[in-house]
Every structure is written in structure tokens, then in C-alpha cells.
Amino acid sequence: MSGSQAVLELDRVEYSYRRNTALRGVSLQLKPGEVVAVTGASGCGKSTLLHCAAGILTPDAGTIQVDGQDVAALREEERARLRRTKVGIVLQFGQLVPDLPLIDNVALPLLLDGHERGEAHLSAMNWLEQVGIADDADAVPTELSGGQTQRAAVARALVTGPSVVLADEPTGSLDSQGGQELLDVLLQAARYRGAALLMVTHDNLVASSADREIRLRDGLIQHEVSL
Ligand SMILES: Nc1ncnc2c1ncn2[C@@H]1O[C@H](COP(=O)(O)OP(=O)(O)OP(=O)(O)O)[C@@H](O)[C@H]1O
To answer: Residue ranges of the ABC transporter domain (predicted)?
Structure first.
């Protein structure tokens, strides 16, 4: 695959937590609309890979490009803007602002990007409906279940119409029906809106909905399967 086609490209990414090496040179590319599942045993480096792709961790070596831009070469504010507008991130824990109503949590990326408040709230409400929690728009995350906050996190990740969606165990707090519904929302973002979707998952059903599965072992790609 040529680099110019990829909307997300990791090239020989390495990352260590002090002496604990989590990634030993991982390369992958995602094209627009492509869905890739990252799997592997606990501790193999899945979350570290996602956090590097999201810019939450800075790799020790290797490069990450989003929409053809080398993330490390950007100035801090440009990098923050790229992340805010082009990348939607669904983490396992804690990315919602605890005391902020869901509607404001979901609208936040748009407000930070200078969108007008009414318009931002309208888009946020639309996404809360799509993930099935419009009735909770005025509730704050601390009043909600793990599954409800996970739905809100997906709404917030998709509200800007990102080119790249990164999701760490996006259905982990939901029962199988709720998980399937939320997975469908993420897959639609890829299939109909052309976002590249990279999902970390332990769940074989989630992995089987991807176009490709990348299995990690000890910080390296053990194998890659087209599904
Ligand atoms: N904050 C940290 N400090 C030190 N070591 C860490 C830290 N976070 C992760 N590690 C180590 O890095 C390696 C990769 O961890 P990572 O969380 O990326 O794996 P994972 O595949 O996502 O695991 P899981 O499936 O259990 O979430 C593991 O050996 C882990 O113990």
C-alpha cells in the first residue's frame, strides 16, 4: 500500500515504559474506510499502540502520519488541532469530563474548534441519538453506567467527522446487544463516512467485523489476516 493512500500510517514504532518495552517496531497503514482490529494476549502492547497512534504517548522511535502529516514534526498547537479535527478517540476509561452534562461533553470538540454553541449542541444531540442515549443528554457521567458513558465517548469521538477513529475496547462495558449496536455505529462511521477505524479488542466477534486483524505478540506484529 502506498503511503499517500493511507490516512493513518505507523512506521516502525517503538515504545518503552522505562525498562519495560511495549512496542518493538510496529508498522501499519489504514486507508479511508478501512476497519482494522488489533488483538493479542494481555500485555502484548495493544493499548500502547493505540495511545501512540492517538498522540497520547510519543514513540521512542519510528513515525506516525495522519492524513499525510508527520505528527512529530508539527508544532504543539498544530498537533493538538490535527488530533481534535482529524482523530476521534474512544479510550477505556475517563475521557469524559465528570461534571459536564453529556450534551456538553459531546459538543466539546466542536466548541474547542470554534463552532457556534447552538450548532455544536445540535450535532451532539444527533450523535447522542445515534448511540441510543438521547434521553440522558442532561445527565452527568458520574450518574451513568459504564455502558452509557462508553456510548457517549463514541458520540464524542465521532462528532467532528474524523478521518481516523481509534477505539480501545469500545464495547467492553456493554452486553452483547448493546455492544453490537455501538459497534454498528463505529462501523457505519467507517463504511459510510470513510473514516479509518482502528479498534483494540479481546472480543472475537468484534474482531471478525473488521477488514483486517493485526495480532500483536510481545510488542511485535505476530500476524496479519484479511477477513
Ligand atoms: N504505565 C505503564 N508503566 C509501565 N509499564 C506499562 C505501563 N502500561 C503498560 N505497561 C506494560 O507495557 C506492556 C504493554 O502494555 P499494554 O497495556 O499496551 O498491553 P495490552 O495488550 O493493551 O494489554 P491489555 O489487553 O491487558 O489491556 C505490558 O508489559 C505492560 O505491563
So the answer is: 8-227
